[in-house]
Amino acid sequence: MRNLTLLTDLYQLTMGQGYFNEGRHEEIAVFDVFFRPNALITYSVAAGMEQVADYLDALSFTQDDIAYLRSLGCFSEDYLRYLSTLRFTGDAVAVREGEIVFPYEPILSVRAPMIQAQLVETAILTFVNHQTLIATKAAKIVDAAGGGVMEFGLRRAQGADAGVYGARAAMIGGCVGTSNVYAGKMFDIPVSGTMAHSWVMNFPSELEAFRAYARSFPDNCLLLVDTYDTLKSGMPNAIRVFGELRAAGHEPKGIRLDSGDLAYLSKEARRMLDEAGFPKAIVCASGDLDEHSIASLKEQGAKIDSWGVGTKLITSADLPALGGVYKLAAVFENGKEIPKIKLSDTTEKITNPGVKEVYRLYDRRLDKAIADYIVRAGETVDESKPLELFHPVETWKRMTVENFRARKLREPIVKDGKRVLPACPLSRSAAYFRAEKGRFWEEYMRRDMPHIYKVDLSPALYELKARLVREGKEN
């Protein structure tokens, strides 16, 4: 694993120098990771926690790192000596990968000496923001397609890491495979892919190109049929080669469409395959797809069995950044918690102070999620009594829930500087996401004009927040 300790912003290190000078570098602090809503973010699929756990576990400055920092000319020698032996000694708790999460709730929290907790902000946000963004985009695309989505985005990703870890996140969000061979090896992801248009163009004729490919892959023959003319050339030649394969004792896999009117072409391709006696041959489509174009194609009756989605998935084209933030929630003085709050004239940007825990409430009878409930650390949720929920801003909006169960959303991923997060196959994280998604009413998950899921505060947390807001205004 690469040493990513310098994967940080300079101001984390300059603040560290300041804390060191002030003698506050060992003061215990708690920071929360959460994201705010916008028109395109109503829910997200959490990802990136594996990388956070590995990063914190391995945090250490190399001699080359210290030499580079010395060359910047802005750090004292005693501070650099301190950094040279620094290791992460704190704790981190987080939701599991594949968890459905919502704006404002802390999906990951770090508790550590101030200088450590500050240093790791940038890297943590890098891992969680990117992978959660791509997992969420994948989930929306897979939902529109109804399954069968392959991630094809490596060549359009913003760099190699974005392509590799984007493929990983896409699997958590429900993709069934990737074209990315490196990610396939690294994360044990199914890989898929056949040919490009250049293969067809490199032979004297389309038919010869198809025959050559069929000779190499007789049991996995999926032909790209839109290089010249899909219906007049590609499909007739593919069907001819499929017949030759069958005569030799093999069955074709199908065809891929990458351009043109995919709704019309897929329906015609399906008809031609069926009439030729190949009803099991699949029709795969690719070509600048996303959840909106896929939903439109399905509404038009497209006969597409499998979808290859690249650019708009791996870049999350309509929302290129999640916007997750890392905010100070509390410090500890002589073991006593001192809650901290960020104030703003914008209500949505006022943070929730103090050390917190997050519960998800489910209707016991229907096993459906009702709301998420953020409480102060140490508070418990009594399932035996009715619980009144209220909107954290528009407090007159209230409801009482009964016959519910409460599930704590977060678990330790790092304890005393060591990773305690168990290894989890991506297939299990994807299965977990699918299972949890089934516990939400579809109105919260739908693509257009979804209901806003409730994320409420306990009375104790609300009162703490209100008091700190009042005191902040007075000061």
Brief digest:
With 475 residues, the chain is of the alpha/beta class. The protein contains 17 helices and 21 strands. It has 2 domains: 10-134 and 320-474, nicotinate phosphoribosyltransferase (Alpha-Beta Barrel); 135-314, TIM Barrel, CATH 3.20.20.
Instruction: Write down the Rg.
Output: 26 Å
What is the overall number of helices? 17
In CATH, the topology of the largest domain is named nicotinate phosphoribosyltransferase
Helix content: 25-40%
- Work out the count of structural domains: 2
The largest β sheet comes out as: 7 strands, antiparallel
Rough shape? globular
Highest-level CATH class of the largest domain: Alpha Beta
Which runs of at least 5 residues are low in confidence (pLDDT < 50)?
none
Could you explain the architecture of this structure?
The chain is an alpha/beta fold. It has two domains: 10-134 and 320-474, nicotinate phosphoribosyltransferase; 135-314, TIM Barrel. Helices cover 39% and strands 20% of the residues. The chain has 17 helices and 21 strands. The protein has helices spanning 10-22, 49-58, 63-71, 77-84, 114-119, 121-145, 160-172, 181-187, 197-201, 206-216, 230-247, 262-275, 291-299, 311-314, 426-437, 442-445, 459-474, and strands at 28-34, 44-45, 91-95, 100-101, 108-113, 149-151, 177-178, 222-224, 254-257, 282-286, 306-309, 325-333, 336-339, 356-363, 368-376, 387-390, 398-401, 404-408, 410-415, 418-419, 455-457. Strands 13-12-1-5-3-19-20 form a seven-stranded antiparallel beta sheet. It has a six-stranded parallel beta sheet with strand order 7-6-11-10-9-8. A four-stranded mixed beta sheet has the order 18-14-15-21. β9, α12 and β10 form a beta-alpha-beta unit. The protein is globular, with a radius of gyration of 26 Å. The chain starts with 9 loop residues before the first helix and ends with a helix.
